[in-house]
Amino acid sequence: MKTWSDRFEEGLNPFIESFNASIDFDILLLEEDLDGSIAHARMLGKTGILTSEEAHQLEEGLEQIRLEASQGTFKPELSDEDIHMAVEKRLTVILGSLGKKLHTGRSRNDQVGTDLRLWLRRRIDELDIHLKRLQIALLIKAESNLFTLIPGYTHLQRAQPLSLAHHLLAYIEMIERDRNRLIDVRKRVDICPLGSAALAGTSLPIDRSFTADQLNFSSIYSNSLDAVSDRDFAVEFTAASSLIMVHLSRLADEIILWASEEFSFLRLTDRCATGSSLMPQKKNPDVPELVRGKTGRVFGHLQSLLTMIKGLPLAYNKDFQEDKEAIFDTFKTVNNSLKAMSILLEEGLEFSLDNLSEAVRSDFSNATDVADYLVSKNIPFREAYQIVGRVVKLCINRKILLKDLTLDEWQEIHPLINQDIFEKLLPEKIVASRISQGGTGFVRVREELEKWRKQLISPN
Ligand code: ARG
Fold it and tell me: Which residues belong to CATH 1.20.200.10 in the chain?
């Protein structure tokens, strides 16, 4: 028997009943539904819409459902349609007709919006903890690799050597922006729609500010129509989550590349790598591959929400029921990916210091520095650039590196070049010299490491 069945004469087609139901997934909102209903019941008591005894009993009945759920005895059925109906039905079994008074002055439309915001607000706080954990894992790796050099790339071509710490710190910056974006999204999740009722408000003397206070919302929606039909916050959440996944995916992709035999910049430990069922020599980077692969589904949720909302007339439409799986799966995907990447950094990979050192010594990534050296001898940069271009070509033809040229050969290239050119070619010196603000120079990177340690680990 449906709550709304008096208006209808025939029962629902069983397939349509299950097509219509959301209980399979909105069961996740149980805690928040109970919290919202308790706040609503208290408000009904406080305003005198119900007696305080009635309000008290409603609250106790709702707490009993919470207890039953924790003991596994609260079992909603498909015929309950959704979590809101399931709770109300159970409450009515527990309290008799008093249970039917809970829904006074509200609708499922403002109720579901409230539940979803309460749920998301908590999950955003949880994500922040995991984002910070990943930042700390990156920082610890960075701290032990200030003087480890790694080739830096543009166009995936060797460009200039970097401090590995500088490279890892770049991801800490990205994640910091992700955290700030979520904090910003949270502001718009933190507005209470409860009491907007179906779409127009109510004639009953409710107190929306009281309910919002009970639920710790920072404010209430000013327009009842907007309140029940706003899903901007869901779009913002999936958009911010998409960027988190973009960052994780780029990091994952670098780890996959670095673990390849071609790069060999790191080894995966047995804790986080898997073998092949066929090829005994393999150790596969499944964890970063999965993170990279899961990125698409979060982008998909963003697209599906945007598309779901775009043509909807005000106010509530059942289409909105589709928001939940998008939000739930986005959270689960991002949260799990963050955890997996943190574990990967904490115990899943070891940088191959010998290979990294060899890599930065066996290429032409010191060419810019020869040009800068010539500039320091007052040769105009463009001219210096061309000279070095010719030298690189010559070395490539002779299958040697810049460091293999003799002083005589250098002086033939340009008479102003001295013995000190050899020091200029050393990757350590090159990295150390990039001390412009935000550069990879060790002194700069050390300052950044200290800044982040203060911010993330020890605030004093
Ligand atoms: N299960 C519904 C949803 O997720 C709850 C709101 C239903 N409201 C309604 N008027 N049918 O959106």
Answer: 109-352
The answer to whether the beta carbons of residues 417 and 410 sit under 8 Å apart is yes
Catalytic residue numbers? 155, 276
Best probe residue, ligand 1, of 78, 79, 112, 196 (max atoms within 8 Å of C-beta): 112
Determine whether 42 is exposed, middle or buried from the number of CB atoms within 10 Å of its CB (0-12, 13-18, 19+): buried
Distance CA 202, CA 78 (A): 30
Residue of 318, 322, 325, 327 to test ligand 1 pocket, by largest number of atoms within 8 Å of CB: 318
Q: Which of 16, 83, 107, 109 to mutate to test the pocket of ligand 1 (most atoms within 8 A of CB)?
A: 109
Residue keyed to tokens 């000190």:
420
Please give the CATH topology (third level) of the domain spanning 14-104. Answer: Fumarase C; Chain B, domain 1 (1.10.275)
- For ligand 1, is residue 108 a contact (CB within 6 Å)? yes
| CATH 1.10.275.10 domain position(s) in the chain | 14-104
For ligand 1, atom 11, which residue shows the shortest CA distance?
318
CATH T-level fold of 109-352: Fumarase C; Chain A, domain 2 (1.20.200)
CA distance 126 to 331: 10
Residues 6+ apart with CB under 8 A from 100: 88, 92
Distance CA 360, CA 152 (A): 9
Q: For residue 198, report the distance from its CA to the centre of ligand 1, in Å.
A: 10
Residue nearest to atom 4 of ligand 1 (CA): 321
Q: Where in the chain is the domain with CATH 1.10.40.30?
A: 367-456
CATH code of the domain occupying 367-456 = 1.10.40.30
Question: Tens-digit pLDDT profile for the chain (460 aa)?
Answer: 566 667 788 889 999 999 999 999 999 999 999 999 999 999 999 999 999 999 999 999 999 999 999 999 999 999 999 999 999 999 999 999 999 999 999 999 999 999 999 999 999 999 999 999 999 999 999 999 999 999 999 999 999 999 999 999 999 999 999 999 999 999 999 999 999 999 999 999 999 999 999 999 999 999 999 999 999 999 999 999 999 999 999 999 999 999 999 999 999 998 888 877 777 777 899 999 999 999 999 999 999 999 999 999 999 999 999 999 999 999 999 999 999 999 999 999 999 999 999 999 999 999 999 999 999 999 999 999 999 999 999 999 999 999 999 999 999 999 999 999 999 999 999 999 999 999 999 999 999 999 999 999 987 6
Residue nearest to ligand 1 atom 3, measured at CA: 321
Q: Is 321 in the pocket of ligand 1 (CB under 6 A)?
A: yes
Indicate whether residue 237 lines ligand 1 (CB < 6 A): no
Element (H, E) at 264: none
